[in-house]
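Exercise 7b. C-alpha coordinates:
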Protein backbone atom coordinates (compact mmCIF):
# COMPACT_ATOMS: atom_id res chain seq x y z
CA UNK A 1 0.00 0.00 0.00
CA UNK A 2 1.45 3.36 -1.02
CA UNK A 3 1.71 6.33 1.32
CA UNK A 4 -0.93 8.10 -0.76
CA UNK A 5 -3.35 5.18 -0.38
CA UNK A 6 -2.69 5.04 3.36
CA UNK A 7 -3.41 8.77 3.63
CA UNK A 8 -6.64 8.35 1.65
CA UNK A 9 -7.75 5.51 3.93
CA UNK A 10 -6.94 7.60 6.98
CA UNK A 11 -8.92 10.55 5.64
CA UNK A 12 -11.94 8.29 5.08
CA UNK A 13 -11.76 6.39 8.36
CA UNK A 14 -10.05 8.84 10.71
CA UNK A 15 -13.18 10.48 12.15
CA UNK A 16 -14.72 7.08 12.87
CA UNK A 17 -11.54 5.88 14.63
CA UNK A 18 -11.00 8.95 16.80
CA UNK A 19 -11.63 8.56 20.53
CA UNK A 20 -11.52 11.11 23.34
CA UNK A 21 -8.46 11.15 25.62
CA UNK A 22 -9.08 11.04 29.36
CA UNK A 23 -7.19 12.31 32.39
CA UNK A 24 -5.85 8.80 32.90
CA UNK A 25 -4.97 7.71 29.39
CA UNK A 26 -4.31 9.24 25.97
CA UNK A 27 -6.44 7.81 23.19
CA UNK A 28 -4.78 5.70 20.48
CA UNK A 29 -4.22 7.74 17.33
CA UNK A 30 -6.40 6.72 14.33
CA UNK A 31 -3.27 6.16 12.23
CA UNK A 32 -1.94 3.62 14.71
CA UNK A 33 -5.30 1.82 14.94
CA UNK A 34 -5.37 1.59 11.14
CA UNK A 35 -1.76 0.35 10.98
CA UNK A 36 -2.46 -2.40 13.52
CA UNK A 37 -5.59 -3.60 11.69
CA UNK A 38 -3.86 -3.63 8.29
CA UNK A 39 -0.87 -5.46 9.74
CA UNK A 40 -3.21 -8.12 11.14
CA UNK A 41 -4.74 -8.64 7.69
CA UNK A 42 -1.49 -8.51 5.74
CA UNK A 43 0.77 -10.57 7.98
CA UNK A 44 -1.53 -13.06 9.66
CA UNK A 45 0.34 -12.45 12.93
CA UNK A 46 -1.53 -13.22 16.13
CA UNK A 47 -3.11 -10.42 18.14
CA UNK A 48 -0.66 -11.13 20.97
CA UNK A 49 2.28 -10.77 18.58
CA UNK A 50 0.88 -7.47 17.30
CA UNK A 51 0.43 -6.20 20.85
CA UNK A 52 4.10 -6.95 21.51
CA UNK A 53 5.23 -5.34 18.23
CA UNK A 54 3.29 -2.12 18.79
CA UNK A 55 3.82 -2.07 22.57
CA UNK A 56 0.09 -1.98 23.18
CA UNK A 57 -2.19 -3.98 25.41
CA UNK A 58 -3.79 -7.05 23.87
CA UNK A 59 -7.29 -5.69 24.53
CA UNK A 60 -6.32 -2.40 22.87
CA UNK A 61 -5.10 -4.24 19.76
CA UNK A 62 -8.23 -6.40 19.67
CA UNK A 63 -10.53 -3.39 20.01
CA UNK A 64 -8.59 -1.50 17.33
CA UNK A 65 -8.89 -4.39 14.88
CA UNK A 66 -12.65 -4.69 15.38
CA UNK A 67 -13.11 -0.92 15.26
CA UNK A 68 -11.22 -0.49 11.98
CA UNK A 69 -12.98 -3.33 10.15
CA UNK A 70 -16.39 -2.09 11.28
CA UNK A 71 -15.49 1.42 10.10
CA UNK A 72 -14.36 0.11 6.69
CA UNK A 73 -17.65 -1.72 6.24
CA UNK A 74 -19.71 1.26 7.39
CA UNK A 75 -17.93 4.02 5.47
CA UNK A 76 -16.40 2.37 2.39
CA UNK A 77 -19.00 -0.22 1.38
CA UNK A 78 -21.18 2.15 -0.62
CA UNK A 79 -18.22 3.51 -2.57
CA UNK A 80 -16.11 0.42 -3.20
CA UNK A 81 -18.66 -2.42 -3.09
CA UNK A 82 -21.98 -0.82 -4.03
CA UNK A 83 -25.12 -2.66 -5.13
CA UNK A 84 -24.94 -3.03 -8.94
CA UNK A 85 -27.31 -1.01 -11.10
CA UNK A 86 -28.49 -1.87 -14.60
CA UNK A 87 -25.72 0.29 -16.08
CA UNK A 88 -23.17 -1.46 -13.87
CA UNK A 89 -24.29 -4.88 -15.10
CA UNK A 90 -24.04 -3.72 -18.72
CA UNK A 91 -20.52 -2.41 -18.10
CA UNK A 92 -19.47 -5.69 -16.46
CA UNK A 93 -20.90 -7.71 -19.37
CA UNK A 94 -19.11 -5.57 -21.95
CA UNK A 95 -15.77 -6.03 -20.16
CA UNK A 96 -16.28 -9.81 -19.97
CA UNK A 97 -16.84 -9.94 -23.72
CA UNK A 98 -13.81 -7.77 -24.48
CA UNK A 99 -11.38 -9.42 -22.05
CA UNK A 100 -12.61 -13.01 -21.70
CA UNK A 101 -14.68 -13.56 -24.87
CA UNK A 102 -17.83 -14.42 -22.96
CA UNK A 103 -20.89 -12.33 -23.89
CA UNK A 104 -23.82 -11.31 -21.68
CA UNK A 105 -21.82 -12.25 -18.56
CA UNK A 106 -22.66 -10.61 -15.22
CA UNK A 107 -19.67 -12.15 -13.47
CA UNK A 108 -18.02 -15.35 -12.25
CA UNK A 109 -19.30 -16.84 -9.00
CA UNK A 110 -17.67 -19.16 -6.48
CA UNK A 111 -17.46 -19.85 -2.76
CA UNK A 112 -14.41 -20.18 -0.51
CA UNK A 113 -13.86 -21.37 3.03
CA UNK A 114 -12.43 -18.95 5.58
CA UNK A 115 -10.87 -21.20 8.23
CA UNK A 116 -11.65 -20.20 11.82
CA UNK A 117 -11.08 -21.41 15.34
CA UNK A 118 -13.93 -23.71 16.35
CA UNK A 119 -16.55 -21.49 18.04
CA UNK A 120 -17.71 -22.62 21.49
CA UNK A 121 -20.88 -24.73 21.59
CA UNK A 122 -21.23 -24.67 17.81
CA UNK A 123 -21.39 -28.43 17.26
CA UNK A 124 -20.76 -29.38 13.64
CA UNK A 125 -22.32 -26.30 12.02
CA UNK A 126 -18.98 -24.80 10.99
CA UNK A 127 -17.28 -28.17 10.28
CA UNK A 128 -16.64 -28.63 6.55
CA UNK A 129 -15.65 -31.45 4.21
CA UNK A 130 -11.96 -30.43 4.58
CA UNK A 131 -12.31 -31.34 8.28
CA UNK A 132 -11.73 -27.76 9.41
CA UNK A 133 -14.08 -25.18 10.92
CA UNK A 134 -14.97 -22.33 8.58
CA UNK A 135 -17.38 -19.74 7.33
CA UNK A 136 -18.11 -19.31 3.63
CA UNK A 137 -17.30 -16.31 1.45
CA UNK A 138 -19.34 -16.40 -1.75
CA UNK A 139 -18.44 -13.78 -4.36
CA UNK A 140 -19.46 -12.60 -7.80
CA UNK A 141 -16.42 -11.12 -9.55
CA UNK A 142 -16.13 -8.99 -12.69
CA UNK A 143 -13.63 -9.25 -15.55
CA UNK A 144 -11.06 -7.12 -13.68
CA UNK A 145 -11.02 -9.30 -10.51
CA UNK A 146 -13.24 -6.81 -8.66
CA UNK A 147 -15.79 -8.09 -6.17
CA UNK A 148 -19.25 -6.98 -7.25
CA UNK A 149 -21.42 -8.97 -4.82
CA UNK A 150 -20.35 -10.88 -1.71
CA UNK A 151 -22.12 -13.05 0.84
CA UNK A 152 -20.23 -13.75 4.07
CA UNK A 153 -20.95 -15.86 7.12
CA UNK A 154 -22.68 -19.06 6.05
CA UNK A 155 -21.72 -22.16 8.01
CA UNK A 156 -18.78 -24.15 6.67
CA UNK A 157 -20.92 -27.27 6.24
CA UNK A 158 -23.10 -25.45 3.66
CA UNK A 159 -22.46 -26.26 0.00
CA UNK A 160 -21.91 -23.68 -2.74
CA UNK A 161 -25.40 -24.34 -4.04
CA UNK A 162 -26.94 -24.02 -0.58
CA UNK A 163 -25.07 -20.79 0.13
CA UNK A 164 -26.15 -19.37 -3.22
CA UNK A 165 -29.80 -20.38 -2.81
CA UNK A 166 -30.05 -18.63 0.55
CA UNK A 167 -28.15 -15.51 -0.49
CA UNK A 168 -29.58 -12.14 -1.48
CA UNK A 169 -27.98 -12.65 -4.90
CA UNK A 170 -29.67 -16.02 -5.43
CA UNK A 171 -33.06 -14.80 -4.24
CA UNK A 172 -32.76 -11.56 -6.22
CA UNK A 173 -31.87 -13.36 -9.47
CA UNK A 174 -34.77 -15.75 -8.98
CA UNK A 175 -37.27 -12.96 -8.33
CA UNK A 176 -35.72 -10.60 -10.92
CA UNK A 177 -35.24 -7.74 -8.47
CA UNK A 178 -31.53 -6.97 -9.08
CA UNK A 179 -31.91 -4.58 -12.04
CA UNK A 180 -30.38 -7.07 -14.47
CA UNK A 181 -30.75 -5.86 -18.09
CA UNK A 182 -33.33 -7.54 -20.29
CA UNK A 183 -32.29 -10.28 -22.69
CA UNK A 184 -30.38 -9.27 -25.78
CA UNK A 185 -28.84 -11.04 -28.77
CA UNK A 186 -25.26 -12.26 -28.62
CA UNK A 187 -22.70 -10.32 -30.71
CA UNK A 188 -23.40 -10.77 -34.45
CA UNK A 189 -25.68 -13.72 -33.64
CA UNK A 190 -29.21 -12.36 -33.81
CA UNK A 191 -30.30 -15.62 -35.49
CA UNK A 192 -29.92 -17.37 -32.10
CA UNK A 193 -32.56 -15.11 -30.60
CA UNK A 194 -32.32 -13.00 -27.47
CA UNK A 195 -30.23 -14.46 -24.67
CA UNK A 196 -30.45 -13.61 -20.96
CA UNK A 197 -27.55 -12.12 -19.04
CA UNK A 198 -25.87 -14.89 -17.07
CA UNK A 199 -23.38 -15.66 -14.32
CA UNK A 200 -20.81 -18.44 -14.74
CA UNK A 201 -20.01 -20.99 -12.04
CA UNK A 202 -18.67 -24.49 -11.52
CA UNK A 203 -20.59 -27.74 -11.14
CA UNK A 204 -21.40 -27.02 -7.48
CA UNK A 205 -23.96 -24.44 -8.61
CA UNK A 206 -27.39 -25.21 -10.07
CA UNK A 207 -27.97 -24.72 -13.79
CA UNK A 208 -30.39 -21.82 -14.28
CA UNK A 209 -31.34 -19.63 -17.25
CA UNK A 210 -29.21 -16.92 -15.59
CA UNK A 211 -26.46 -19.20 -14.15
CA UNK A 212 -24.38 -21.40 -16.44
CA UNK A 213 -22.19 -24.30 -15.36
CA UNK A 214 -20.10 -26.78 -17.40
CA UNK A 215 -21.52 -29.84 -19.11
CA UNK A 216 -20.94 -32.84 -16.78
CA UNK A 217 -19.08 -35.99 -17.73
CA UNK A 218 -15.89 -36.90 -19.58
CA UNK A 219 -16.93 -38.24 -22.99
CA UNK A 220 -18.28 -34.95 -24.30
CA UNK A 221 -18.71 -33.89 -27.90
CA UNK A 222 -16.18 -31.44 -29.30
CA UNK A 223 -18.78 -28.66 -29.22
CA UNK A 224 -19.55 -29.24 -25.54
CA UNK A 225 -15.84 -29.39 -24.72
CA UNK A 226 -15.41 -26.02 -26.41
CA UNK A 227 -18.25 -24.60 -24.31
CA UNK A 228 -16.68 -25.96 -21.11
CA UNK A 229 -13.33 -24.43 -22.03
CA UNK A 230 -14.85 -21.03 -22.75
CA UNK A 231 -16.90 -21.09 -19.54
CA UNK A 232 -13.94 -22.24 -17.45
CA UNK A 233 -11.77 -19.50 -18.95
CA UNK A 234 -14.31 -16.87 -17.91
CA UNK A 235 -14.87 -18.50 -14.52
CA UNK A 236 -11.16 -18.37 -13.65
CA UNK A 237 -11.46 -14.67 -12.82
CA UNK A 238 -13.14 -15.50 -9.51
CA UNK A 239 -10.38 -17.98 -8.66
CA UNK A 240 -7.82 -15.31 -9.53
CA UNK A 241 -9.64 -12.75 -7.39
CA UNK A 242 -9.50 -15.09 -4.41
CA UNK A 243 -5.81 -15.66 -5.13
CA UNK A 244 -5.09 -11.92 -5.16
CA UNK A 245 -7.14 -11.46 -1.98
CA UNK A 246 -5.21 -14.15 -0.11
CA UNK A 247 -1.80 -13.01 -1.43
CA UNK A 248 -2.40 -9.48 -0.23
CA UNK A 249 -4.12 -10.41 3.05
CA UNK A 250 -2.24 -13.44 4.33
CA UNK A 251 -4.51 -13.90 7.28
CA UNK A 252 -6.67 -15.92 4.86
CA UNK A 253 -3.90 -18.53 4.75
CA UNK A 254 -4.26 -19.37 8.43
CA UNK A 255 -6.92 -20.16 11.01
CA UNK A 256 -8.53 -16.96 12.31
CA UNK A 257 -8.99 -16.95 16.06
CA UNK A 258 -11.95 -14.58 16.33
CA UNK A 259 -15.65 -15.05 16.99
CA UNK A 260 -17.61 -15.75 13.76
CA UNK A 261 -19.37 -12.36 13.81
CA UNK A 262 -15.98 -10.62 13.95
CA UNK A 263 -14.60 -12.85 11.20
CA UNK A 264 -17.56 -11.81 9.02
CA UNK A 265 -16.63 -8.14 9.47
CA UNK A 266 -12.95 -8.88 8.79
CA UNK A 267 -13.77 -10.70 5.54
CA UNK A 268 -16.07 -7.91 4.32
CA UNK A 269 -13.36 -5.35 5.14
CA UNK A 270 -10.77 -7.44 3.29
CA UNK A 271 -12.95 -7.56 0.16
CA UNK A 272 -13.63 -3.81 0.30
CA UNK A 273 -9.90 -3.08 0.68
CA UNK A 274 -9.20 -5.48 -2.20
CA UNK A 275 -11.40 -3.32 -4.44
CA UNK A 276 -9.85 -0.13 -3.03
CA UNK A 277 -6.31 -1.31 -3.82
CA UNK A 278 -7.00 -3.15 -7.08
CA UNK A 279 -4.46 -2.21 -9.75
CA UNK A 280 -3.79 -4.04 -13.05
CA UNK A 281 -0.03 -3.60 -12.62
CA UNK A 282 -0.16 -5.47 -9.29
CA UNK A 283 -2.55 -8.28 -10.21
CA UNK A 284 -0.09 -10.53 -12.06
CA UNK A 285 2.56 -10.19 -9.36
CA UNK A 286 0.08 -11.22 -6.68
CA UNK A 287 -1.17 -14.15 -8.77
CA UNK A 288 2.39 -15.33 -9.39
CA UNK A 289 3.08 -15.07 -5.67
CA UNK A 290 0.01 -17.15 -4.84
CA UNK A 291 1.08 -19.81 -7.34
CA UNK A 292 4.62 -19.93 -5.96
CA UNK A 293 3.31 -20.35 -2.44
CA UNK A 294 1.16 -23.21 -3.64
CA UNK A 295 -1.44 -22.26 -1.05
CA UNK A 296 -5.04 -21.50 -1.86
CA UNK A 297 -8.22 -20.86 0.06
CA UNK A 298 -10.18 -24.11 0.05
CA UNK A 299 -13.07 -24.41 -2.41
CA UNK A 300 -16.53 -25.10 -1.02
CA UNK A 301 -18.26 -28.32 -2.31
CA UNK A 302 -31.89 -30.53 -8.87
CA UNK A 303 -32.51 -31.03 -11.86
CA UNK A 304 -32.09 -28.05 -14.25
CA UNK A 305 -35.07 -26.60 -16.06
CA UNK A 306 -35.53 -26.95 -19.80
CA UNK A 307 -35.10 -23.18 -20.17
CA UNK A 308 -31.71 -23.38 -18.44
CA UNK A 309 -30.60 -26.21 -20.72
CA UNK A 310 -31.74 -24.26 -23.78
CA UNK A 311 -29.73 -21.21 -22.74
CA UNK A 312 -26.61 -23.34 -22.27
CA UNK A 313 -27.16 -24.98 -25.66
CA UNK A 314 -27.49 -21.56 -27.31
CA UNK A 315 -24.21 -20.37 -25.78
CA UNK A 316 -22.60 -23.64 -26.87
CA UNK A 317 -23.78 -23.05 -30.44
CA UNK A 318 -22.49 -19.47 -30.33
CA UNK A 319 -19.01 -20.49 -29.13
CA UNK A 320 -18.76 -23.01 -31.98
CA UNK A 321 -19.93 -20.54 -34.65
CA UNK A 322 -17.81 -18.14 -36.75
CA UNK A 323 -19.32 -15.24 -34.81
CA UNK A 324 -18.43 -16.54 -31.37
CA UNK A 325 -15.34 -18.74 -31.75
CA UNK A 326 -11.78 -17.70 -30.89
CA UNK A 327 -8.81 -18.83 -32.96
CA UNK A 328 -7.10 -20.89 -30.25
CA UNK A 329 -10.05 -22.76 -28.73
CA UNK A 330 -9.66 -26.01 -30.72
CA UNK A 331 -6.10 -26.39 -29.39
CA UNK A 332 -7.34 -26.15 -25.79
CA UNK A 333 -9.64 -29.17 -25.74
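Sequence design result:
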Amino acid sequence: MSAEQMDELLSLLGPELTRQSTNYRAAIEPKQRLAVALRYLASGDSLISLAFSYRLGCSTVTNSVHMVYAAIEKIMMERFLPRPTEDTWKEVAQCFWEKWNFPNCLGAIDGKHIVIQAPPLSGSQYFNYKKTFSIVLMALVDADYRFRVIQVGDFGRTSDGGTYAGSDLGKGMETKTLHVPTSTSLPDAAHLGEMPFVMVGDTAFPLKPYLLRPYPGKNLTHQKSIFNYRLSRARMVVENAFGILASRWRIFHRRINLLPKNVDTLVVAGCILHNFLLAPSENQRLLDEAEQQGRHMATVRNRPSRDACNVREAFCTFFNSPEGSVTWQDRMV
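Instructor comment: The chain has eleven helices and seven strands. The beta strands are 105-115, 134-141, 147-155, 184-186, 189-195, 198-200, 211-212.
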